Amino acid sequence: MKLKWRVGEVKTGRYRGFFKRSWPSANFMDGNTAAAIYCDDEYYPSIAKSGEHSELIVRVAAWGYKEPGCGVFKWLTLKKRAKTLKEAKELVSAFFGKYPEFMPKGLESKLC
Known about the structure:
The chain is an alpha+beta fold. Helices cover about 20% and strands about 25% of the residues.
């Protein structure tokens, strides 16, 4: 399973002080949503690298939550909190490794 992680864009412009840069989110290689990481602190690469931020909340997209092969997903928040960005990414990989039925499969044929 491969995931493509992306960090929110740096805010620019006149009102940039009102918005926070978002933490990384992941998509599967086919473009479907996989996971998102949330934190009370704004994302800065230096803070993420040093680990000087509050706990990270990990949410995963459970595809086919209602029925297998269904083209909708439900956000599931993992109980375990991560202390580092690397640990948060490992939690996502571990979740989809343990529960592969929540990965998107054949969604183009059926939308619920």
